[in-house]
Design brief:
The structure holds two protein chains of two kinds. Chain A is globular, with a radius of gyration of 21 Å. The model of chain A has no long low-confidence stretch (mean pLDDT about 90). Chain A starts with a strand and ends in a 12-residue tail after the last strand. Helices cover about 30% and strands about 25% of the residues of chain A. The longest helix of chain A is centred in the middle third of the chain and has 18 residues. Chain A is of the alpha/beta class. In chain B, about 45% of the residues are buried. Chain B is globular. Chain B has an eight-stranded mixed β-sheet, with helices on both faces. In chain B, strands 2-1-4-5 form a four-stranded antiparallel β-sheet. In chain B, helix 4 runs parallel beside helix 6. The chains are: A alpha/beta, B alpha/beta. Chains A and B meet through helix 8, helix 9, helix 10 and helix 11 of A and helix 7, helix 8, helix 9, helix 10 and helix 11 of B.
């Protein structure tokens, strides 16, 4: 096994809102290995983004609150670090790419300056060295005429180009981990394909570990080594990428795959998951998916399922063996 | 050459099938104005000379990326926006020639389902008044009959009668889209323009809504124009598909021809860009990655609009707009260099 760079244990995050307590993350544990590409799949409200944002305290606090858990990154527990220390890690040892580059880039500063700022903040580089490095980075992420482009403002670039700039900024300080939150969701499909291709190349060249958050099971199928599926603030299934798609063992994972139309297949019936997403305002007692689950037994409604290890690296939080219909 | 279907070919195609919507050389140009005098300095050709038919009872998929003009096309067909050129016939009636009153009389037959059920439902109205609004406007039902119809509609779309007195914010996205669908079918329409009806919904909810739309189509004999950027979903729902790029239809074909034997290089590239939920296939695929970005529709490339990103473009593509021609039965393509495979050529 390769080295673990990030080890998250039993993370709980909640938000205190006017409507009540939103239980966003309810006990999430996972690890990330050096150079690994981890896909995190879930729908809105699954807790996939809040989990990752919690690690670096990028959630608004208050109303957000991390009530339990640890996140070991090297020798440090990120959850216990103060903001000052976290600032060194954010954008330094852990890079971020967000969904909408237009809101995460500063509209009144040139992209060159935004990249060099990151470098000057986190490294001992001289200004001129940082400028050279910035041009190299733009070149690395596939932006033509990189040196010229440094002088552009974000609005002078297309959505795809801006997302490339975001990737360049995330890569600037050679981070150990990059967390990408729906980085291609706002892009057109041909531009998404360009970005994915670029990420594929960069992965081979740089070997940075990546956590890629998405609602789209198809996007990570060709990228990830391992995939976590989240629902109701928990990981419900984790498996190597080929196992997850060929032998899903959580009813929600199966349901998601069944409800996806396929470009490469003629109109088969879409098996939809009935019911509505869980209400996070009530603390889950049993399995959050039970009200929508065709396999649910009484136990599912009263007892939060533990993880069952089905094979090495394949775990599922479900009381029922789907192949037999019997309790595990 | 411009894209033009002759009436003769249309009649051939339509031997057995009745055309419900006929679109010919449709244009929607938005003026660009500048300066104090607001002089027109150019125009955005959002929809530029497109022609197609929609057959009764079918789902015509309309796919394209942002800026392709797919939404504008849908709006113009419903006369929610004004065409700047061309013709639209709805059941043989010249739609663009209708005055306000005649158009209003026709409205019940043509409805729309919008993308964002958060924005398209009035937050201050109850579900009953939202769904009942078209009945109040266009039907002569008395209030008890209206109430019964509203209950019936809610049941049809899978909502409970006691939902009628609630407000939109009390519902999830999928349920709100059901409310929008109930409103759209209230007056027994024949034709519904669905503009990205599932794009704002979670994946597990998308299938619910699409299954409902397919069920309604079967039961009520509806015709859909299904506008979407989601090629996989369009393959699932559509009978025929039109692909738009920068205001033009580049390819129009039956769904299996379009997906299994696409002829236009843009159609091919678009499909190759869609990821598949299967790691093994994903790693084996040959990808055509298009370079560059979609040009601005205010200043589209000369000749073929796709040529700046096209992997097979040549000199001719710069100077000549490709003709929209039928290369297989029912498969229309606007490309100078689209080719049938050799067997088909030999077979005639």
């Amino acid at each position: 096994m390769t080295d673990v760079v990030l080890d998250v244990e039993d993370l709980h995050t909640r938000f205190l809102t006017a409507d009540g307590v939103v239980h966003a993350v309810n006990g999430v544990s996972f690890d990330l290995h050096a150079g690994e590409f981890l896909g995190v799949v879930g729908e809105s409200g699954s807790g996939k983004s809040v989990t990752m944002m919690s690690l670096l305290k990028l959630i608004p606090m208050p109303p957000g609150e991390i009530t339990a858990g640890e996140a070991n990154f090297g020798d440090d527990n990120l959850i216990e670090m103060d903001h000052e220390a976290l600032r060194d890690i954010r954008g330094g040892r852990i890079g971020f790419i967000f969904q909408d580059p237009m809101t995460s880039l500063n509209p009144v500063i040139t992209v060159g300056k935004q990249i060099t700022e990151a470098l000057l903040e986190h490294t001992d580089m001289s200004k001129s060295a940082a400028k050279t490095r910035a041009a190299d980075l733009l070149d690395l992420v596939g932006i033509p005429d990189a040196a010229q482009r440094l002088k552009n403002y974000p609005h002078e670039m297309s959505g795809g180009m801006r997302q490339r700039v975001m990737i360049a900024i995330a890569l600037a300080c050679s981070p150990e981990v990059i967390i990408a939150d729906e980085p291609t969701t706002a892009l057109d499909v041909t531009i998404q394909a360009q970005i994915i291709e670029q990420v594929r190349k960069l992965r081979e060249e740089l070997g940075t570990a990546v956590i890629w958050i998405t609602h789209d099971l198809a996007v990570v199928a060709g990228l990830a080594d391992r995939v976590l599926v989240m629902y109701g603030g928990r990981i419900v299934e984790e498996a190597k990428v080929d196992v997850l798609y060929s032998n899903p063992q959580h009813p929600y994972t199966r349901g998601l795959l069944g409800s996806l139309p396929r470009l490469d297949q003629k109109g088969h019936e879409l098996t939809s998951i009935e019911g509505q997403p869980p209400n996070l305002l009530t603390k889950p007692v049993g399995c959050s998916f039970a009200p929508r689950c065709e396999f649910a037994i009484d136990k599912c409604r009263t007892e939060m399922p533990d993880y069952y290890e089905l094979a090495i690296g394949h775990r599922v939080a479900c009381h029922v063996n789907l192949d037999t219909g019997e309790p595990r | 050459m411009t894209a033009e279907l002759t009436d003769a070919t249309v009649e051939n195609d339509a031997d057995e099938r009745e055309v419900i919507v006929r679109v010919r050389s449709l244009e929607r140009h938005f003026p660009i104005r500048k300066g104090i005098l607001k002089r027109q300095v150019g125009s955005v050709k959002a929809v530029d000379d497109i022609s197609f038919d929609i057959y009764k009872g079918e789902t015509l998929g309309l796919v394209g990326e942002s800026g392709s003009g797919k939404t504008t096309t849908g709006r113009v067909i419903l006369r929610l926006d004004d065409a700047t050129g061309g013709d639209i016939e709805f059941e043989g009636v010249d739609l663009l020639g209708l005055d306000h009153k005649a158009l209003r009389a026709l409205r019940p037959k043509m409805q729309t389902i919008f993308q964002d059920p958060h924005a398209s439902l009035n937050p201050r109205m109850t579900v009953a008044s939202i769904v009942g609004e078209p009945l109040r406007e266009h039907s002569k039902l008395r209030s008890a009959e209206q109430k019964a119809r509203i209950d019936e509609l809610l049941e049809i779309v899978g909502l409970a009668p006691d939902h009628a007195n609630r407000y939109p914010h009390e519902f999830s996205g999928g349920q709100r889209q059901r409310i929008g669908i109930a409103r759209a079918i209230a007056l027994n329409p024949e034709f519904i323009v669905c503009d990205e009806p599932i794009a704002a919904l979670d994946v597990s909810i998308q299938a619910q809504v699409v299954n409902l739309m397919e069920k309604l189509q079967k039961e009520l004999g509806l015709t859909y124009l299904f506008i979407s950027h989601d090629l996989s979903m369009v393959r699932h729902v559509a009978d025929r598909v039109a692909v738009m790029y920068l205001g033009k239809i580049v390819e129009l074909a039956g769904v299996d021809d379009l997906y299994d034997r696409p002829l236009h290089p843009y159609t091919k590239a678009l499909q190759s860009a869609v990821p598949l939920p299967d790691p093994i296939l994903e790693n084996m695929r040959d990808r055509t990655i298009l370079e560059g970005d979609i040009p601005s529709p205010s200043n589209p490339p000369s000749g073929c609009r796709f040529r700046t990103r096209c992997p097979i473009a040549q000199e001719q593509c710069k100077s000549e707009v490709p003709e929209f021609r039928e290369m297989r039965s029912g498969q229309w393509v606007a490309c100078h260099f689209a080719e049938l495979d050799s067997q088909e050529n030999a077979g005639g």
